[in-house]
Amino acid sequence: MITSHVYGQPLRPWPPEPMPPGPTPPGPGPIPPFPPGPPPRPGRTPEPGRPVQNPAMAPVQVWIDPRGWPGHLYERLLDRRIVMAHGHLDGEAATRLAAQLLTLDAEGTASIRLELQNLSADLPAALSVMGILDVVRGPVSGYAGGRVEGPALGILAACRHRKAYPNALLVLSEPQVSFDGTVTALASREEQARAMLDELFGRVAEVTGRDVAQVRADARRDKLFTVAEAIAYGLVESQVTARGLPGLPGLGRAPGQGDDDGRDGGAGPGDE
Known about the structure:
single chain; 272 residues; five-stranded parallel beta sheet; 16% strand
């Protein structure tokens, strides 16, 4: 037989005992409503129930739908005239990048911020983007982050202003070009490859103020630059600094210092 208590009131034994004949005696009355909190133990004073949590402080669960989020992110960046290029830039990716740059150029001559993140590129693809950057009316500022190497440095060199994030690594290397075909076709393609290399190294030499022969020699050695070395070489103009955060020791800066949504000293990205 099992005996239990609810709020200090004993329950009838189970299974119930047979009732004697006659009218049913009155019971102990209705059971009081169940209060919040655990039921009290026998012989113990009930504890007050927990207060109801403020809905404003209740935890919030967020489910992110991964479908289509890169496209939405890029659209928001384009609304702020920021273009993102990352990964390996081939002919198809270069076409999309050029379309974004031309779209922003058609909307006005305001400055454009070009983010180059962990970027490598085929030589023809890099040259096509460099050609677009030469004709864009608004000033373009290139921001290098991660590892930017090979012909992708030509895209950075084609920007009017060039900056690098603190963790950036820039690799000046000679691109690998391969092709096959007849002897006549190979000779023609080799001549085209040499012309494209001349354009690439000539652009790097122009922005760095160095001789083309020196740039070629450094590219054959796969010369690696940290941010400080890239600034000394002339590949970038400055390092991107954190936006001033007043009230935090060591991070607060005077107004006009550091980046503020791509702006240095109040001017837009690429503005002179």
